[in-house]
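B., you asked whether I could sanity-check this one before it goes into the benchmark set. Here's the sequence:
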Amino acid sequence: MNEMYPRAADFEILTPEVDARWKNVGQWDRTYFPKLVGLHVEETRLGYCRMVLSYREELEQPMGVVHGGAIATLIDASVVPAIGSAYDNTVG
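And here's what the prediction gave me:
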């Protein structure tokens, strides 16, 4: 793994079932906050998630750059699939 910039290729590929589960994050019928701001999962691997936040003017702060809260949302939402990909969905 590149110590400074991890790449998707540095992480194990998920099984098709687990990959499909995490690619659905943000694509629910109901509008939860990640969907409201426009987040979507681009790639998930074991311990890794690349999520995209598409730019729109509504996400800007008054100085003309993306609001820190939108960036924090991207970080917060991408951690869930990155960590969750290491666990199966069995209980017990």
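One thing to flag: The chain has three helices and two strands. Otherwise nothing jumped out at me.
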